[in-house]
Amino acid sequence: MGRGKIEIKRIENSTNRQVTFSKRRNGIIKKAREISVLCESQVSVVIFSSCGKMSEYCSPNTSFPRILERYQHNCGKKLWDAKHENLNAQIDRVKKENDNMQIELRHLKGEDLNSLNPKELIPIEEALENGLNGVRAKQMEYLKMLKKNERLLEEENKRLTYILRHQQLAMEGNVRQLDLGYHQREREFAAQMPMAFRVQPIHPNLQQNK
């Protein structure tokens, strides 16, 4: 009894749909690998699932971009629009500029100079001299800044020394005034004492009373 034909339509059950997708995807990739090996053909397969997951296969002796290039050449259809072509051209330009900058950097370091002729060495020499002059100018600017800061620090030190000296003199003056005031009060107190309390040990009368 033969197998009945399966109606080709969307499988409603999500689980069955995923199982069927996995089986048939593996079968397609297997067939693509077989035809690539048996018939020495170039095959490329790209499959996207309903959830966006990508599966791909490409023959070992080629690559997917080469397959697209051959397709575009044989069919006369452009797979890349003007925007993508412009971006690709910009990427190539940036890569070329980067390569040139790497070469110039090696030359400035004194590397890979054997392939250059005397005329090509002149701009390199000028660039090095300009760089050296720039470095020296920056060093002089830095030295001037250090000297300026040193001068400002010296002036600030003199100012602080002047203030400190005046404070010390003021403190010494206050101490002398306190001493003078103390002696003055002593003399005023002695002047106000009654005569009976002004005892002098060497008074003649005291010696006689003994």
UniProtKB/TrEMBL annotation:
Gene Ontology CC terms: nucleus
Location of this chain's protein in the cell: Nucleus
Lineage, broadest ranks: Eukaryota, Viridiplantae, Streptophyta, Embryophyta, Tracheophyta
Superkingdom classification of source: Eukaryota
UniProt xrefs under Pfam families: K-box, SRF-TF
A molecular function GO annotation: RNA polymerase II transcription regulatory region sequence-specific DNA binding
Domain K-box stretches: 84-170
Gene that produces this protein: ApMADS1
Gene Ontology biological process terms from the UniProt entry: positive regulation of transcription by RNA polymerase II
Keywords: Coiled coil, DNA-binding, Nucleus, Transcription, Transcription regulation
Protein name (Swiss-Prot/TrEMBL): MADS-box transcription factor PI
InterPro entries, alphabetized: MADS-box/MEF2_TF, MEF2-like_N, TF_Kbox, TF_MADSbox, TF_MADSbox_sf
Principal cellular location given in the protein's record: nucleus
UniProt domain MADS-box: residue ranges: 1-61
Keyword Protease included in the entry's annotation: no
UniProt feature coiled coil, ranges: 77-111
